[in-house]
Structures are given as structure tokens and as C-alpha cells.
Amino acid sequence: MSTTPGDRPYPIHVDGRLEGPLSRWLWVVKWLLIVPHVLVLIALWTVFWLLSLVALVAILITGHYPRAIFDFNVGVLRWSWRVGFYAYNALGTDRYPPFTLAAVPGYPAALDVEYPERLHRGLVLVKWLLAIPHLLILGILFGGGGWLSWKVGGEAWSWGGGGLVGLLVLIAGVLLAVTGAYPPPLFDAIIGLNRWGLRVAAYVALMTDSYPPFSIDLGGADPGTPVISGEPVVPSDAGAT
Hints:
By secondary structure, the chain is mainly alpha-helical. The chain has one domain (11-222). It is 46% helix and 7% strand. It has helices at residues 30-33, 35-62, 67-86, 127-130, 132-142, 146-153, 164-179, 184-204, and strands spanning 3-4, 8-9, 12-16, 109-113, 227-228, 231-232. The strands form three sheets. Strands 1-2 form a two-stranded antiparallel ribbon. A hairpin with a 2-residue loop joins strand 5 and strand 6. The longest helix has 28 residues, at 35-62. It is globular, with a radius of gyration of 17 Å.
């Protein structure tokens, strides 16, 4: 389990539940089915980075991340993760992702970021620098630097830009076509790699001062997400569209 100082779970929670049975061939055309999402995500990610600059200034002055901006940016990460989970970052479900920034109870992909009551003012200026070791590794895992911006909504479109994650997801697609089954160990590894990338993305976007662990944390369930009746608890969210 990845923890922060004081043995608290890491404050970015990324969950994915493998659904079945999965279609043997639907994954071949998911690039076309997600076109509407990609078009929306292009605009959302543009706003995401502009608002992150506003948040940077606010943190420098007040030490607080404006809550409305925080909720919106978490929603963009959440939306991107659902689309990526459906499409070529995981192929974990055939259930079409909803068009919303809000948490969706029952959907097999979930993401949440704990709101920080206070952030270090000076640290916001160097987080990108501190994250360089992660960025170098994740550039290999996801292909180039596209993982951080999800290629402005397009990381779910392609096979991870040719990185390891894209290769593993392609293997999963081929196995689905041939056998009709998605090997759980392969799924667990793919989710763990995505979890690492999303933790670092949230850190670079100034959402936490907790340095991301160099940890994959295999499996669909995030070690820091509360669980009831065997399923992650999806928090309520005010950021609905």
C-alpha cells in the first residue's frame, strides 16, 4: 500500500473494476465511439490548465486551492479516467462512459482526490521540477509526454502513444478477440500503471503536497479507497455538468 507520511493512504484514489463478459471485438471500434468524448475533453483540458494557473496564483497568495477550481479539475481527471478505462488505457468495460464531471456511483472506473485544507505556498513553483523522476519513467510507460495531458483528451484515443501501457492494452485486446477473456493479472498491472500516472498528474496540477510514491499498486481497488460490500465507495461530488 502506498502511504503518505504518518501512514495515511495517498490522497489520490484511482479505482477500476473489470466488468464482464466483454465483447471480443468492440474494442476494435472504441476509437470511433469515443470521438464525442475526445472533442469535449480537448476543451475541458484547455480549461483545466488555465484554471491550474489561476490556482497557482491563489495558492501563492493564500495557501489554499480554490474549491470550485479544485472540484472542476478533479472532474476533468475523473472524466478522462472513465474514458481511458473504457477505451485504450484499460479496455476494462464495455459500458459507455457518461458525459459528466461528477462521480458516478456504480460505474466501474472511479477517481477522487482529497481536498487539501492548506498547501505549501512556495512548493507550487517547483512541483514540476520535483516530479521529473516520475515524468521520465512515465514517459516510457505511456509513450512520450502525452500521459500527463492525456494528449489533451486523446490518450484514451490511441494505444498510449506506443508506451508499455499501450502495448499491454493491445495484448489484452488481442486476447479478448482470441479467447474471449481478459486475464486478471494483466488487468491489475494495467490499472496499477494508470494509477501511478494519475497520481503524478494530480501532483503536478498542484492538487496535493504529498509526493507521489514510486509504486504501481497493482489491482483494481486503490489501497486508500474506502470499501463497503466489496466495492469502492464513490464520494458525492458537486462538479456535475
